[in-house]
Amino acid sequence: MRPGDADQVEQRLRELSTTLGSELVVEILAMFRQDGSAQFTDLQNACHRRELKAMQSAAHRLLGSVLLIGARHLAQLCRKLELLARQGDEVSAFAAVAELEQEFTILLAWVCQIEL
User: Fold this and answer.
1) What is the band of 116 on the pLDDT scale with cuts at 50, 70, 90?
2) pTM for the full model?
């Protein structure tokens, strides 16, 4: 399945490839696969523990990763979750995690198939 951010991510990767070279873009994608997955796992664990502060922190770290590859919609979801967690809105924050999980899973699977 193609994520909603696919066009933006493809554009960002082309820009990075032109600026930095394709070898570095391959490394960036590998880091996203590894670090993004770990950051999302941290977010899920914080959610299971019902720790809003940890959810806020994990969402912020994930935000940096998704922005690096140009996934703007996913970045908006991270910002939304970060704000909800900061405000202490537990119910909405947990709903945002579910939405973020769906989008992140689709994006990660798609990114894993990208060949440069």
Assistant:
1) confident
2) 0.93
Q: Distance from first CA to last CA of the chain, Å, rounded?
A: 19
User: 28 is in which domain, residue-wise?
Assistant: 6-111
In a domain? residue 59:
yes
Distance between CA 16 and CA 13 in Å, rounded? 5
1-27 pLDDT, tens digit each: 899 999 999 999 999 999 999 999 999
For residue 22, the domain's CATH number is 1.20.120.160
